[in-house]
User: What shape does this take?
Amino acid sequence: MAVAAVDQQLGPARPRARRQGQHHLQSIVFLVPGAVFLLAIVIWPAIATVRYSFYNGTATKAVGLSNYKSLFSTADTLIAFRNNVIWVLVFPFIITVFGLVFAVLSEHIRWSTAFKTIIFLPIVFSVTASSLVFTQIFQLDPHVGVLNAIIQTVDDYFHPPGAYPLSAGQTATSLATSGVVAGPHGTLESSTTVRAGGTARIGLTGVDPDTLAVLGARQARLPTASPGAVTGLVWRDFSASNPSNISGVLAGEDGFPNLRLALVRSDGTTAATTTTDAFGRFVFSGVGTGSFRVQIEASNFTPAFSGTFWLGPQSLTPTENLSQTAQALLSVPLIDISEILAYLWIWAGFTMVVVAAGLAALDREALEAAHVDGATEWQTFRRVTIPMLAPVLTVVFVTMVINVLKIFDIVVNLGIDTSQPGGQSSTLASDVYYLGFGGGVHTGLASALAVILFVLVVPAMLFNLKRISGK
Assistant: This one.
C-alpha cells in the first residue's frame, strides 16, 4: 500500500522532469551555434593573441616577455601610449560637457526634436564616412577645404592680398627685367629718376600670362608724355617670338593692370600714388619740381592666405641634450585637432541623448524646490541638476574612455601619413594594426600590444557595467 502511494506521487513528477530535460536540451541546441560562433571569433582569437605575444615576429620561436619589454622601451610605442593618454584625459571630459550642454539646451529651445535630430545624425554614419567628410573640410587648399575657406575670407578682409601674389620662395626682385631695381621693404623702384614731363618704363616678368588675362590685361601701350606730370608703363617684358629683345615694347607683351604705384622723392617721402590701367599705363599729375622714382608698392605682391594644415599635428621643437626617446616624445604635439573635432562631431549626439534621458528622469520637485528657495538657474543647475545627473555623466564619461582607449578608425583615416608606428597621430590600436597587418609585420609585438590594450580596457568596461546595473 505504501509503495503504491509513493508511485502515485512520483508518477506526475517523472513526466514533468522529462519535459524539463527536453526543454533544457532544446535550449542547449539553440545556444550551441552562438557559443561556437563566440568561441570562433572572440575566445579562440583572444587565446591565440596571448600565445603569440610570447613569440617572435614570425611566430616561430618563443621569446618570453621580450615583446613586452620592447614595447615599454621603444620611442614608437611610447608615443602611442602618450597619445592614448592625451585622448583619455581630453576627449571624455570635453564630449561629456558637450552632451550636457546640448541636452540642457534641447529642453529650453523651440524645435527641440529637430535640434536633437541634427546633433544625433552624425552617429548614424560610419566613422570612415565621417572621416572622409572631415578630410574635405580640413583640406589645405582654401578652394576645397571649408574651414580654410572661411579663414581665408576673414584674412582677406583684414589683410587683402595683392593682385600679383608671390609664390613660396619667390621675391619681388625676381620679377624685375628692365628699368627696375629692388627698393626698400619689398618694393620695386625705377632704376633711373624721372622729372615732371618725363616717362618711366618698367619691365617685369615672372608672372603667368593667364594671371594677367584674368585681371583684364591688354597689349602694352606707351602713354603720351604730359607737361607737369610723370607718365609711364609697366609691362610684361618678354616676347616668345623675340626673347632677346629686352626693354622694347613688342607685340604680344601685355601691360600690368591694377598695379598700385607711388611716386617717391629723393628723401623717401611719397609725392603721389596711382594705379595702372589695363594697358599698364600710369600718370602722376601735378607732381611739381624735383626728381622722382616710380615705386611699385610691396602690397601688390602680398600672397593670399594659402591654408592652415589641419590634417595632422605640428611638431614641437625638441629640447637639446635629451635622450633619443625623450627627443621623439617631445617632437609629438599634444593632440591632432582635426581628429578631436571629427570625433566630437560623431559622438556629441550619443552623449546628448543619454544625458537627456537622465534629465527626463530627474525629480522635478527637487528642481522646483530649489527655485522656490530663491536659487537662480545657474545655481540650480550647478548644485542640484549636475549632482543628480552624476551617475549618468559617469556612465557617459567611462564609455568615452573605453572608446578612446581603443580609438583607431578616425586616426587611420584622418592621419593617413602620421598614424603609423612612431607617427605623430599614432595610438595603441593603430600600432596594433600596422604591426600586425601593415608593412614590417611583427606578430609578436602586435599581439603583446593588443593584450596590453585589452588589459587597459577591461577595468573601465567592468566599472561601466557595474554602474549601469546599479550594483
Q: What stands out?
A: The two ends are 54 Å apart (CA to CA). The mean pLDDT is 83. The longest helix spans residues 2-52.
